């Protein structure tokens, strides 16, 4: 069923009794051409683009939980392409362009809202660094504007501009950035892939990877063995654990990243704002809640829950930027597992095992990369060669020294 104003009117006249499930709850078949491990946004996007762009339909996505239960539903919904380095900028700009046409592509309302992303700066050196990044973005064809304090004040008048410890001097604005409803992104890709014959198998956990003569031939799961000509590993914070089943040790650490939502408020802020003197990013959802996040937890963990010290740290940053938030009640928070790479940039590449492909190491950048990640991973699987904009995301770059260190933080994942 295609969603449109006509189908809505038709179902309204029928009392909404004719809607069909958004996707089939498929049982696994014995064999597929491509088996994707991980039913998050990146895995589902890969399946969609394999079927829609590369004509590969004998595909299954297997997910140990339910669709949307992982990181794709555990983030702060921000989309942007304001990167500095040549290895990153074209990739994230491709992602932004795919975001702009996503709802028409998958025929699903993902609530993509290009409300702008504003990075605040608080010192002259930070202004110069932002000017450099903005210039690099414009040279790459990405929109960027450097704003002075008064132009920032006109956009977000509630912030503390003069009396705070770190007075706001201005900001770098990308107007095409914004937000998208995170779980709707997963549902939209799932529906689009299902409509092209992809099997989406939920509650199916991988327990082993079968390798014969250096080539992958399938996986063992809690719902029985599944054979496959190609296997794609895209499991975010669990990348190291699943890769270990294939005998690989990845340059990745898993950390918890918490996000927070306040009680519903009247419209206060119509863009995404990031604090330049601390790690805080904040926006307002369409339901009125303020959505914000900060640093990862400082230790490795696979637990999808946070801790009080990080909550305190994020709230301090929030009060430093916007003192009025002290009167707002926090409604809920959650934790997602970040697969933090050693240079803060992702991996989309072959592995030493023939027929086994890896998509991992997304750190903080996983949600905004979803469309390009899926498209480039599908390109790699279908053609056995990297897409040009993802060619730098090689697994062996940590051995060859060709790292993509966007923040210059070195091999310390907790600082990226």
The total of beta strands comes to 18
Structural class: alpha/beta
Helix content: 25-40%
State the helix count.
Answer: 11
Shape descriptor reads: globular
The end-to-end distance, rounded to whole angstroms, is 43 Å
What would you report as the Rg, rounded to the nearest angstrom?
21 Å
The residue-averaged pLDDT reads 95
The main pleated sheet reads as: 8 strands, mixed
Encode the helix/strand succession as letters.
HEHEEHHEHEHEEHEEEEHEEEEHEEEHH
Low-confidence stretches: none
Question: Strand share of the residues?
Answer: 25-35%
Q: Can you describe this structure in just a few lines?
A:
With 416 residues, the protein is an alpha/beta fold. Helices cover 28% and strands 26% of the residues. The strands form 3 sheets. Strands 1, 2, 8, 9, 10, 11, 17 and 18 form an 8-stranded mixed β-sheet that branches.
